[in-house]
Specification:
The protein is mainly alpha-helical. The protein is about 60% helix and about 5% strand. The chain folds into 2 domains: about 60 residues, Multidrug-efflux Transporter Regulator, Chain: A, Domain 2 (Orthogonal Bundle), CATH 1.10.1660.10; about 45 residues, no CATH class. The longest helix has about 35 residues.
């Protein structure tokens, strides 16, 4: 592995903050790099690629332990990708559940806003629904 890239350049190239690069080293997602005689970390192109992989995984909402597993899989390309598929399918299910919940929330908020007559607070649909959970459709469905 060719080294020689400073942490600031690795940060810039990967889109990962310097403090986060150090954190990923501490938790073992990124190998601890060699240091110069002056004590500065030096990285290689492989480290930039690994950090980019981690950043993209985080953007997609994968947890650190899932990323750790995915990196282990990536480091052994000759094995089955079944575990990667399982991890991605689980994340997809989480996203779909969140979307369904957000759509229900959107619907309830639209109903509240549309039901408001813009009159006085004593007849305000928004206040009334917020004060009585029983009138909230979102609450009734347990989402």
């Amino acid at each position: 592995m060719s080294h020689g890239i400073a942490i600031g350049k690795v940060s810039e190239a990967s889109g990962v903050k310097v403090t986060t690069v150090r954190f990923y080293e501490q938790i073992g997602l990124l190998p601890v790099p060699p240091r110069t005689e002056g004590g500065r970390r030096t990285y290689g192109r492989e480290d930039v690629e690994r950090l980019t992989f981690i950043r993209h995984s985080r953007e997609l909402g994968f947890e650190i332990d899932q990323i750790r597993t995915l990196l282990q899989l990536q480091d052994r390309p000759d094995q089955s990708c079944e575990e990667a598929d399982v991890i991605a399918k689980a994340r997809l299910c989480e996203v779909k559940e969140k979307i369904a919940s957000l759509l229900a929330l959107e619907s309830e908020l639209e109903r509240m806003v549309e039901g408001c007559s813009h009159g006085r607070v004593e007849t305000c649909q928004v206040i009334e629904i917020l004060a009585d959970h029983g009138k909230c459709r979102h609450h009734q469905h347990g989402l």
